[in-house]
Amino acid sequence: MPKSDSPSKTPAANNEPKTPLSSPKVRTGAEKFAEISKKLREDLSFVASKSNAKIERVSTGIKGFDQIIQGGFVRKSTIMLSGGAGTGKTIFALQYLYNGITKFNENGIYISFNESKEAIYRHAQLFGWDFQELENENKFVFIKYEPHEVDTIITEGGGSIKDNIDALNVKRIVIDSLTTYTLLFENQYKESEAILDLFGILKRWGLTSLIIAEVGETEWQRTQDRSIFLSDGVIFTYYLRKELSRNRAIEVIKMRDTSHMEKICPFMITNKGIVVFPEAQVFGLIK
Asked: What residue ranges define each of the domains in the chain, with the CATH number in brackets?
């Protein structure tokens, strides 16, 4: 047999201990949420507008508030309205829908996971807002979801909500509330998935959405809400105390594609709804 020109080599024995293969890292629910939410923001966020492009805005019709946000919300954006009890969140949301229908010819829908239709309509009547009449005219619809029905929003891609949006040509929607919605899921991972799915559905519907959320009284509690990172805009409402008095105030934390006023503005709840005072100063401390 022909011999090889090069001598054969016997592999040297490797006496070094082998490094055991590390097991794959198990991601926590919070890490999964951060990864998925980052992808969602990249997929669904607004494209930065060119300097000469005109941004279409949706006026809230709330006196003094649109002045803070360059005339209104960006069309098809998702805005979170957060605050503690008694800070005027529901009134703000109802006023946004009512003004949209009666002043700007933009039909609306109110999704509730807590309050009944009768309670919301009765509350609105205190300010002269007759939502029953608007419903009779096919300009507004109220949908109440029971706890066992919440899953159908995601599994059916909106189900009856989407049907009503198409039938009424809805442009504005209120979700009341994100806090109650998330409580209906059995663990934090399902809760996080449900939030991401809800924001995704709202984007696909192409509505200008206002989502109510209940938050704590301190600055730290407000800023820990994961949903603020998915929202195009975030508004905080306050009920500030100084000695024996209280005042309500509102602050725009962020508003995409908008040069918003960076201050806390006082507002009043009158018999015709909310009135914001952009030039006035508030008293009391934000903790």
From this structure: 56-276 (3.40.50.300)
Distance CA 217, CA 249 (A): 13
Region of 88 please: left (phi>0), alpha (psi -120 to 50) or beta.
left
pTM for this entry = 0.78
Can you tell me whether residue 109 is helix, strand or coil? strand
Dist CA 119 CA 89 (whole Å): 15
Report how many helices (DSSP H) and strands (DSSP E) the chain contains, helices first. Answer: 9, 11
Whether residue 92 contacts residue 212, with contact meaning beta carbons closer than 8 Å, is answered with no
Which of 34-43, 116-125, 229-238, 250-259 comes out lowest in average pLDDT?
Answer: 34-43
CA end-to-end span of the chain = 91
Q: Are 131 and 124 in contact (CB under 8 A)?
A: yes
Mean pLDDT of 130-145: 97
What does the pLDDT read at residue 79? 96
